[in-house]
Amino acid sequence: MTRADDLGTPDPSGPLDGVGESGQLGRDVASGDGGNGDGGGDVSGDVDAVGDVDVDGGARTRRRLLRGGLAFGAAVAVGLTAELTSSTGRASTGAVDHPSAVWTPATSHNYTASRRTSSYPIDLVVIHVTQASFTNAIGIFQSPSHAVSAHYVVRSGDGEIAQCVREHDIAWHAGNWGYNTRSIGIEHEGWVGQPAYFTSAMYSASAALTAAICDRYGIPKDRDHIIGHYQVPGTDHTDPGANWDWPRYLALVNAA
Ligand SMILES: [Zn+2]
């Protein structure tokens, strides 16, 4: 996700990182530049946080993560409480593919409009961890300078689901154009190294979402089709990380 260009252009051959990250929050942050990232201004404050975002890899990113993680630590402790207690229950207003999701659109600069499944089949669900707060992740998706997005973001505290990109469109989350075209990307609020973010509410809500997606497109509910970002070819991202309970998640998806 280093190059903004990759993002913008659905270049199938682009380096995964480039693309993938593009799709990801981290990338911007991590690379700081991106299309503009640096100056960005608005997001720059989040950058560290974002940078962590799973999005990109690279030593530079990792360094940022460490840095951002530490810096974020304190903020997170405080922010998390606010996040968890923030209001919920907003009504969906239409344009969502998942009935209980809240339509929180990403800027159209951060995804590729498409007509799936006429344009591309959908046979994968990619699981991510934001490495940023729910609010910051959505803010990044809404910022034209970041070139990253995901179809959904699930909030840690209560499992609220924000839909940011329609499923027929191609979100930039996998850092790999080919994988982006065939998948639905779900971001989970939290950090790979902080298992406390992976709450029962989040697992349940996300599993119900993934189950519905699988039913919608005839995707097998198994680990060959519900994958972690770390499994995308060419990525150096590790999310959702070792603290993500795959057996539990798959059991919930299959029971939903
Ligand atoms: Zn990811």
Instruction: Write down the domain tally.
Output: 1
Radius of gyration: 16 Å
Strand order of the largest sheet: 1-5-4-7-3-8
Based on the structure given, which CATH architecture is correct?
3-Layer(aba) Sandwich
What is the CA–CA distance across the termini? 34 Å
Order of helices and strands: HHHHHEEEHEEEHEHEH
Question: Approximately how much beta-strand content do the residues carry?
Answer: 5-15%
Low-confidence stretches: 1-24, 26-93
What would you say this structure looks like, in words?
By secondary structure, the protein is an alpha/beta fold. It has a single domain, classed as Peptidoglycan recognition protein-like (Lysozyme-like), CATH 3.40.80.10. It has 9 helices and 8 strands. It has helices at residues 4-8, 16-23, 25-31, 44-52, 58-85, 134-141, 177-181, 200-217, 246-255; strands at residues 102-103, 111-112, 124-129, 152-154, 161-163, 170-171, 183-188, 226-228. Strands 1-5-4-7-3-8 form a 6-stranded mixed sheet, with helices on both faces. Helix 3 packs across helix 4. The radius of gyration is 16 Å and the shape is globular. The chain starts with a helix and ends with a helix. The model is unreliable at 1-24 and 26-93 (pLDDT under 50). The chain binds zinc ion. Residues 24, 54-55, 128, 229, 237, 239 line the site of zinc ion (ZN). Zinc ion (ZN) binds at residues 24, 54-55, 128, 229, 237, 239.
